[in-house]
Amino acid sequence: MGIVSRGFHGKRRDGGDRLPPGQYLVEDFPVLSAGPTPRVPLERWEFAIDTEAGQTHRWSWDELMALPQETPTVDIHCVTKWSKLDTTWEGVSLDVLFEDVESAADYALIYSYGGYTTNVPVEDLLDGKAWIAHRFDGEELAPQHGGPARLVVPHLYFWKSAKWVRGIRLLNEDYPGFWETAGYHNYGDPWREQRYEGD
């Protein structure tokens, strides 16, 4: 008789049609990071979008706070197989930040304080699909969850929602980020179980 770990069989637990294949529900908010937690003072924080033509658009913390805010409620799915339903964030839609950005780039490399990077197609950042979030569940976003601000792209595995986000570099060619270079899937669709290269 073999030993079966709880982590290796299905535990759908009421997720129904909202739970992608191979995922299980959590009530808490697990903390997973690739390195130490950066501490970024708000007076030194900035966010930038760098175009493929070399133009840079920058926002300070106060400028970000002055932009129209949204409070999306979304489900999130981690590549380590946990999912959390109905998470509520507050932040700025990428549609707002891209309003004055002239670019024909198809690809984006997201970069963070602390050196983390991840790649996302530009079309997956627009049309109400992504936010720079600074609050979670009515509270300021805690540093261990990516505060003061993180990217939230809920339709992709959560490693694409870069913590401690610092900027977006727009590119004409796709360029893999930290986990993608280490063998994770280049796109990361949880509904197609695109966890690792070749999935």
TrEMBL record:
Domain of life of the source: Bacteria
SUPFAM superfamilies noted in UniProt: Oxidoreductase molybdopterin-binding domain (SSF56524)
Region (Disordered), start-end ranges: 1-22
CDD domains per record: arch_bact_SO_family_Moco
Oxidoreductase molybdopterin-binding domain span: 35-179
Protein name: Sulfite oxidase-like oxidoreductase
